[in-house]
Amino acid sequence: MPKPDWLRVKAPQQQRIGDVADLLVDLKLNTVCQEASCPNIGECFAGGTATFLIMGPACTRACPYCDISFDRSKRELDPTEPQRLGEAVSRMNLQHVVITSVNRDDLEDGGASQFLKCICAVRKISPHTTIELLIPDLCGNWDALKIILDAVPNVLNHNIETVPRLYKRVRPQAIYERSLELLDRVRDGWPKVYTKSGLMVGLGETDEEVIEVLADLREHKVDIVTIGQYLSPGPKHLPVDRFVSPRQFDVYRLTGEDQFGFLQVVSSPLTRSSYHAGEVKKLMATHPK
């Protein structure tokens, strides 16, 4: 299926991309931008931003939409990673940082302790930087969730990814209701943390189902939502079912903000969960908690 014109990406500034890539190599850090083949990598690297991928580049789950590599074996965590991450945030002079991870179902706490150490390292080295976490479902380990949230990140993001009807095909090891419960627990237990979620369209869902997911997320008191077009990474991954028009993305945004009352809905073909994430600072200033 050929891509429509609205999915064309402008050529980025190569020098700035190289600077960020060199820093990541120097500090031996991974980014989801590279590992997941994000279409916005050029724009983000050229702007001096990146979404850091902690706990290694390989995931213990093999979701058929995702380009991140798969490894179910038990792997030790790198105790130097939090310090290196904090140094990268400082050297890039980031005002806002997004930290995410692969699923680490091989770890008892799903990697919660490493998230905590990364938050502490960033706050020590770069105290002005606001912190957004994009976390997996932790297999429903709510004690592990508490470990992360007791550090009170500014934003907690957990992606719902798709509509419940497609979970067995798109997210076979995840549970729709469990992801909603995670978001609900964040809101109830840590009301000062902004909650965020995101989903992809173009996997076989209907527009009506997307609206139903928005209703579910708002019922669970989510503040921010991102919606973007699914792009298949390759022939071994799920194919694109449809390309959603920019006008329909506008409908999603207006429905979410005007009808359901989300603080922010970022909705466009190239939107990804961390795209322009730093704009949350404006939201935090106009809607303080």
Structure description:
- The chain has a single domain (5-286), classed as TIM Barrel.
- The chain is built from eleven helices and ten strands.
- The chain has helices spanning 14-26, 32-35, 41-46, 81-91, 112-125, 142-149, 167-170, 176-189, 207-219, 246-260, 280-286, and strands at 30-31, 51-54, 58-59, 69-70, 96-101, 130-134, 155-157, 194-201, 224-229, 264-267.
- The relative contact order is 0.13.
- It is an alpha/beta fold and 289 residues long.
Put simply, the count of helices is: 11
CATH topology: TIM Barrel
Give the biggest beta sheet.
8 strands, mixed
**What does the average pLDDT come to?**
88
As a percent range, the share of strand residues is 5-15%
- Order of strands in the sheet with most strands: 1-2-5-6-7-8-9-10
CATH architecture descriptor: Alpha-Beta Barrel
Instruction: Write the H/E string, N to C.
Output: HEHHEEEHEHEHEHHEHEHEH
Indicate how many domains the architecture comprises.
1
Radius of gyration: 18 Å
Instruction: Please tally the β strands and state the result.
Output: 10
In helices, the fraction of residues equals 25-40%
Cα separation of the termini: 45 Å
What is the CATH superfamily label?
A: Aldolase class I
